[in-house]
Design goal:
Chain lengths: ~210, ~210
DNA sequence: GTCTATAGGGAGATAGAC
DNA sequence: GTCTATCTCCCTATAGAC
């Protein structure tokens, strides 16, 4: 399945909003603004203006501003879990699966859903404790994918560190790329960056 | 020089505030609150209450709230640059120097200055563009230390990836530990965590 | 150097017309 | 489903007394 087909099927199941609809467009703009200015500095007036309505009208779609933040995060995790699963299925060996996961996460962070992924990392504290608990449940599915693959590499003796530590280090390292990686400025492509991450972990690029 | 001696000499040079003085205590509380609730959600009333004064009195010490954020960041970088330099001087080989840097940065992030280090990472966007430029200058000195060591390892053929990419990955990975690493809960000591990071990079622990 | 009091501005959210 | 109008609250920062 292509990335677009995955998105379409999630929309059909009502797990993520159609980016063409009113709700989907708002969430997309919200992700952009939250990433750019931070959740707190983004006002409901900013959000409304970004989709061309008045601030009062927002509250027809969402009860509170925080509900918007939560929706951005929930839909992002749902989409990316599906993308990761698809990326892994195409790979055969644990090493190839790891590469697929790294590549897919870098793509999530630096591609179309990058703004929402950055929000997930940097605006976490702005989410209420209750909402955090809900979102964490979804995250566990996603993390299990990684731990399986890293565990297999560890069993093969090709990974010297503990899988759960490596996963947490990679979470930080890959998320952080959003602050510095600029593919459009030339230099490093997404595949090149993936090669660098694999090389850092001791897996030389196979040309 | 011990860590405490380094701190004392920076205080003597007026490069960081004495934690016992009024300014130093405020900055320490500010770091704690900014880390806990975020800069935007922390009010000047919160800051004042944390040191037992009224909000209006704060503005006798700092002209604006943002000036407090900037001071937290500047003093943190100054202290940590000095700590890193000292940590490196004690090591001989590039590998040992890398370990010393990793250990020192993990200690900065998870030790006494951890709150301020986390603020540096997570509240960056809350700093005005002008202040960001000032702080970035200080950061360059700090980063050069890392690139020298990673470059030496690369020359030795013991590092497969590009030094500047590895440094950025490590910045993310090590900063991220602040969100999950809890030494007091047992399990992993700071040295153990350092070993894990080194192992991840392909340098087995030497017992 | 700290206090009290308050100015001045925006913030999130609501109500009811269309 | 969007508009206008507005409520209420709380934020940063200032002023002047002590």
């Amino acid at each position: 399945m292509s990335q677009n087909q995955i998105l379409q099927s999630l929309i059909a199941e009502n797990l993520v909003s159609d980016p063409k609809g009113a709700r989907g467009r708002l969430l997309k703009e919200a992700a952009r603004l939250f990433r750019e200015k931070g959740y707190e500095r983004t006002t409901v007036r900013d959000l409304a203006a970004a989709v061309g309505i008045q601030s009062g009208s927002l509250f027809h779609h969402f009860r509170t501003k925080e509900e918007i933040l939560k929706a951005v995060m929930v839909e992002t995790i749902r989409l990316n879990t599906a993308l990761m699963q698809a990326a892994m299925e195409a790979a055969e060996t644990p090493k190839d699966k790891l590469r697929a996961l790294v590549r897919a996460e870098l793509e999530s962070i630096n591609g179309q859903t990058g703004e929402a992924m950055a929000v997930l990392v940097f605006e976490w504290r702005s989410l209420s404790a209750d909402s955090q608990a809900d979102v964490l449940e979804l995250r566990d599915i996603y993390e299990a994918l990684w731990l399986d693959v890293l565990g297999a590499l560890r069993d093969q003796g090709r990974l010297l560190a503990e899988p759960f530590v490596v996963r947490r280090m990679l979470t930080g390292a890959l998320s952080w790329t959003v602050t510095w990686y600029r593919p459009e400025r030339g230099g490093l492509t997404l595949d090149g960056l993936t090669d660098q991450v694999m090389a850092m972990l001791g897996f030389p690029a196979t040309p």
